[in-house]
UniProtKB/TrEMBL annotation:
Lineage top rank: taxon: Eukaryota
Secretion signal span: 1-19
Record's protein name: Six-hairpin glycosidase
Biological processes, Gene Ontology terms: carbohydrate metabolic process
Originating species: Glarea lozoyensis (strain ATCC 20868 / MF5171)
Length: 666
C-alpha cells in the first residue's frame, strides 16, 4: 500500500515536470541519451533476426558472412556507438561502422565526408576477441548521422545482441527541458521551429571533442579520392574551455564560427536558452584577438591556425558579444569584453577610406565569391555593428566612443546609398565595379537599416522575392551553380519580417525550410548548410557533395524570427527590461509562444483572421515596461487580476507595465 502510494507520487511529479514544457511532443531531442535503433532501412547479405536489434539491447541477430545492416534513426542524432556481441566463429571477425546524415551516402565502405575530398574511413571493431560490448573510442564520436550501417567484412558468423548510441550533443542541457516554445495552426511551421531549435542542440558539443581538422590544407577540393580509398577522421581537438560550446555544425566543422553564431544565437535563446555554450564559444574567439591590431579570428581553434583574415567574421564576433549581453543581461561580461569590442571595431574602422566606406582587402567570408573593395554586405554589417556598439556604449556611459562612432556610421549610410544603390533594379550593387546585386548585402542593408526609407527597404525585399525559385531564395554572389544559402536566407527572411511582409516571410519559410525538412534526402529534423537552386544537394563552395553538413546552426533563422515577429515578442532592451508586443500572423489563425530571460517569462497567445488580431493574451515580467502595437485593432487591454483597463489608441499603447494582459476588442 505504502509502496504503491510512493510510486504514484513519483510518477505524478515526473509528469508534472514534463507538463511544464509546453508542446514538448514537438521536441526532437531524444528522451534518453542511450538510443537504440528505431527502424531498419536496409539489410544486405544474410542477417538472421535483424529485427531483434530494434528498440533495445537484448537482440539475437547473426551476421552470416559478408553482410550489413543500415539503421534509420528517423532523425539526425550524434554520439558514440557501442555494439554488444555474443559469440563469433573467428578471432579475425570485425564489424565496421559507417555513418551518414543524408540517405544519398549510405555505403558499407565509408561514411559521408568531413574532408574536402573522399569519404570518411570505416571505424572497425575487433569483435572476434570475444563476447562483450565494443565501443568506439571517444574521438570517433560522430557528431551527426541519421543512418548507421554495421558491416561484417568476412565469412565469419557473428552474433550481435545490440547496437546503441550514447548521445553526446548538448552536454550541459536537460535535452527536453526547453525554456521556450512555439505553436501555431500550421504544423509545418511548428516542425520548422523545433527543427531549428534541435539543429542548434546537436551543434552544441563537449569542446574536448571538436574536429582535429588534420586534413585541412592537405586534402583539397580538387583532389579525387575514390573508394576503396577513404580518409581518416577524428574529433579529438579541444576547441575551447568549459563543458559545452556552440559550433557551426554537428558533423562538420565542429568548430566555433562567429558568422554562424549570428543566426544560431537568437534561436538558441528562444528555445533552449543554452547561453553557457554560447559564452564558451565566444570566449574562444575573443581569446584569439590580436593584441596589437584588435583583429578577431575567422574561426576558432584549430581553424584559426591558418591565420585567415575575414572582415565580416571579425565583425560577427563583436555582434556575438552584443547578442550575448542582450540575452543574458550580464553587464559584468560586457564590461570585461568592452575593451575587446572597442579594439575590434577600431580595426574595422581603420579600413574606412575617403569615400566613407570600408575597403575590404581579404576575400574570406561565408564562402561566397567576389568579396572585396567597397562590398555592400561587409559595410552593412559594419553599420549594424557600430549601432550595436553605440547601444552598448550608452549602457556603459562611454560617451567618447559614441562621439567617435556615430559620424562614421552616418557616413557609411550616405556613401553606400550614393555609390552602391542601383535604382534600376531596386537593389544595392555588390561593389562599384559590378552589376551583380547580392542577396547577402541587400538582406543585411534592410536588417541594418542602411536604407533611407521604408519604401527603399520594401523595394529591396520585393526585388529579392522576385528572384525566388522552386527551392528558395538564391544567393547569386555564391558562384556557380546558383546556390541557396539558408544562412543568408535567414537574413533575407528577417528583412521580410522587418518590412512587415509577414505573408512573404511565411511563404519563404514554407518554401525553403519546408523543402529542407520534407525532402527524403534530408534528415527530417535538422537544417543543412546549403544546396543548389535546382534542388540538388550540391553546395557550390564544395566539390565533395558528401561533405556538406545537414545540421548547421546558421540555417536556423526561422526559429527566433517566428518567436520575435509572428508571436510578436520583441525585447527592445537587454533581457526585456523594455519590450514591444506586436504579433503579425499573415495567414495564420492561432499562435502561442514564449521564452524566458533572467527577468522571467515572456509569452503571447494570439488569434487572427486574415491578418488582423482578434484575440490576444500576453505576459511580461513584473517591473518591466513596454508597448503594444496592433494595427487596425480597436479595443482595450485588461491587466492582471485587478482588471486595470488601458485603451488602445490607433491600435497602440505605450509605457505599459509588465504583467499579464488580455485584449478586449470593441
Ligand atoms: C537485457 O538483458 C539484461 C541481462 O539479461 C537484463 O538485465 C536487462 O533488463 C535486459 N534489458 C531489456 C531492456 O530487456
Ligand atoms: C546495400 O546495397 C545497396 C544496393 O546495392 C547499396 O546502395 C547500399 O549502399 C548497400 N549498403 C551498405 C551498407 O553497403
Ligand atoms: C576486415 O576489416 C579489418 C579492419 O580493416 C581488417 O583487419 C580485416 O582484414 C578485414 N577482413 C577481411 C576478411 O577483409
Ligand atoms: C575520380 O576517379 C574515378 C576513378 O578513377 C573516376 O571514375 C571519376 O571520373 C573521377 N572523378 C573526377 C571528378 O575526376
Ligand atoms: C587525436 O587522435 C589522433 C589519431 O589517433 C592522434 O594522432 C592525436 O595525437 C590525437 N590528438 C589528441 C590531442 O589527443
Ligand atoms: C598580430 O598582427 C600583427 C600585424 O598584422 C602580426 O605581425 C602578428 O603576428 C599578429 N599576432 C598574432 C599573435 O597573430
Ligand atoms: C557573467 O560574466 C562573467 C564574466 O565573463 C562570468 O564570470 C559570469 O559567470 C557570468 N555570469 C553568469 C550568470 O553567467
Ligand atoms: C566586386 O563584385 C564582383 C561581383 O561579386 C566581384 O566579382 C568582384 O571581385 C568584386 N570586386 C572586388 C574588388 O572584390
Ligand atoms: C582597397 O585597398 C586595396 C589595397 O590597398 C587597393 O588596391 C584597392 O584599390 C582599394 N579598393 C578601393 C575600392 O579603393
Ligand atoms: C532607420 O534610419 C532612418 C533614417 O535613415 C531613421 O529615420 C529610422 O528611425 C531608422 N530606423 C530604425 C528602426 O532605427
Ligand atoms: C518527419 O518528422 C515528423 C515529426 O517531426 C513526423 O511526424 C513525420 O512523419 C516525419 N516524416 C517522415 C517522412 O518520416
Ligand atoms: C483579407 O485582407 C486582404 C488585404 O488586407 C483583403 O484584400 C481581403 O479582401 C481580405 N479578405 C477577407 C476575407 O476579409
Amino acid at each position: 500500500m505504502n509502496l504503491i502510494l510512493t510510486l504514484t507520487v513519483v510518477a505524478s511529479v515526473a509528469q508534472k515536470s514534463l507538463a511544464t514544457v509546453p508542446y514538448s511532443n514537438y521536441i526532437l531531442a531524444p528522451e534518453s541519451r542511450t538510443i537504440y535503433p528505431p527502424r531498419i532501412h536496409q539489410v544486405n547479405g544474410t542477417l538472421t533476426n535483424s529485427k531483434s536489434l530494434i528498440g533495445g539491447p537484448n537482440g539475437t541477430a547473426t551476421f552470416n558472412g559478408v553482410s550489413s545492416i543500415t539503421f534509420d534513426y528517423t532523425k539526425n542524432i550524434g554520439g558514440v556507438v557501442s555494439v554488444k556481441v555474443g559469440k563469433s566463429s573467428s578471432p579475425d571477425a570485425f564489424v565496421g561502422l559507417t555513418y551518414t546524415e543524408s540517405s544519398l551516402w549510405i555505403n558499407g565502405q565509408g561514411s559521408d565526408a568531413t574532408a574536402d575530398a573522399g569519404l570518411d574511413e570505416v571505424i572497425w571493431l575487433p569483435v572476434g576477441e570475444g563476447p562483450g560490448t565494443y565501443t568506439v573510442e571517444r574521438k570517433y564520436d560522430r557528431g551527426a548521422f541519421r543512418y548507421l550501417s554495421v558491416v561484417s567484412n568476412s565469412s565469419a558468423t557473428i552474433d550481435v545482441q545490440g547496437v546503441s548510441v550514447y548521445y553526446t550533443a548538448a552536454p550541459a542541457q536537460d535535452l527536453r527541458g526547453y525554456s521556450g516554445y512555439f505553436h501555431s495552426n500550421d504544423e509545418l511551421l511548428n516542425r520548422v521551429w523545433y527543427a531549428g531549435a534541435y539543429t542548434n542542440q546537436i551543434c552544441a558539443i563537449d569542446p574536448k571533442w571538436g574536429n582535429a581538422l588534420v586534413h585541412l590544407g592537405t586534402i583539397t577540393k580538387d583532389q579525387n579520392i575514390s573508394l576503396p580509398e577513404t580518409v581518416t577522421w577524428y574529433n579529438n581537438a579541444t576547441i575551447t574551455e568549459g563543458r559545452s560550446a556552440m559550433t557551426d555544425g554537428a558533423k562538420r566543422d565542429r568548430e566555433v564560427w562567429p558568422g554562424d553564431m549570428s543566426v544560431a544565437l537568437p534561436s538558441v535563446f528562444v528555445s533552449t536558452n543554452d547561453l553557457e555554450s554560447v559564452r564558451n564559444a565566444l570566449n574562444s574567439l575573443v581569446s584569439l584577438q590580436n593584441a596589437t591590431t584588435g583583429l578577431m579570428p575567422y574561426a576558432g581553434f584549430p581553424f584559426s591556425d591558418l591565420g585567415i583574415v575575414s572582415f565580416t567574421y571579425h565583425l560577427y564576433t563583436l555582434i556575438g558579444i552584443s547578442y550575448y549581453h542582450q540575452y543574458s543581461g550580464n553587464v559584468t561580461y560586457l564590461r570585461s569584453h568592452w575593451d575587446n569590442f572597442k579594439r575590434g571595431l577600431a580595426w574595422s574602422l581603420s579600413y574606412i577610406d575617403e569615400t566613407g566606406l570600408m575597403n575590404v582587402t581579404s576575400s574570406a567570408d561565408w564562402l561566397r565569391v567576389g568579396m572585396g573593395g567597397h562590398n555592400i554586405e561587409a559595410n552593412a554589417i559594419l553599420y549594424y555593428t557600430i549601432n550595436q556598439g553605440l547601444n552598448l556604449a550608452s549602457i556603459l556611459n562611454d560617451s567618447a566612443s559614441v562621439a567617435d562612432w556615430a559620424p562614421k556610421a552616418d557616413a557609411i549610410k550616405v556613401a553606400a546609398n550614393k555609390l552602391l544603390w542601383n535604382p534600376a533594379t531596386s537593389l544595392f550593387l555588390d561593389n562599384e565595379t559590378t552589376t551583380l546585386s547580392p542577396q547577402d548585402g541587400n538582406a543585411w542593408a534592410v536588417k541594418a537599416n542602411l536604407t533611407l526609407s521604408t519604401a527603399q527597404s520594401s523595394a529591396i525585399t520585393n526585388a529579392l522575392k522576385s528572384r525566388w525559385g522552386t527551392y528558395g531564395a538564391p544567393s547569386p554572389e555564391a558562384g556557380v551553380p546558383l546556390t541557396i544559402s539558408p544562412f543568408i536566407g535567414s537574413f533575407e527572411l528577417e528583412a521580410h519580417f522587418i518590412g512587415q511582409e509577414t505573408q512573404d516571410a511565411l511563404d519563404l519559410i514554407r518554401l525553403q525550410w519546408g523543402f529542407m525538412l520534407n525532402d527524403p534526402r534530408m534528415t527530417n529534423s535538422t537544417f543543412m548548410e546549403g544546396y543548389s537552386a535546382d534542388g540538388s544537394l550540391h553546395y557550390a563552395p564544395y566539390n565533395n557533395d558528401p561533405r556538406v553538413s545537414h545540421a548547421h546552426g546558421w540555417s536556423t533563422g526561422p526559429t527566433s524570427l517566428m518567436s520575435f515577429y509572428i508571436a510578436g515578442l520583441h525585447l527592445t532592451s537587454s533581457i526585456g527590461r523594455t519590450w514591444k508586443i506586436s504579433p503579425a500572423l499573415g495567414d495564420l489563425t492561432d499562435v502561442d509562444a514564449g521564452f524566458e530571460t533572467p527577468l522571467g517569462k515572456f509569452s503571447s497567445t494570439v488569434s487572427a483572421c486574415n491578418g488582423t488580431v482578434k484575440a490576444l493574451k500576453f505576459a511580461t515580467p513584473k517591473g518591466t515596461k513596454g508597448s503594444v502595437s496592433l494595427p487596425g485593432v480597436k479595443g482595450e487591454l485588461i491587466g492582471g487580476t485587478r482588471g486595470v483597463i488601458v485603451k488602445l489608441v490607433n491600435g497602440e499603447v505605450n509605457d505599459l507595465p509588465g504583467g499579464e494582459w488580455r485584449l478586449r476588442c470593441s
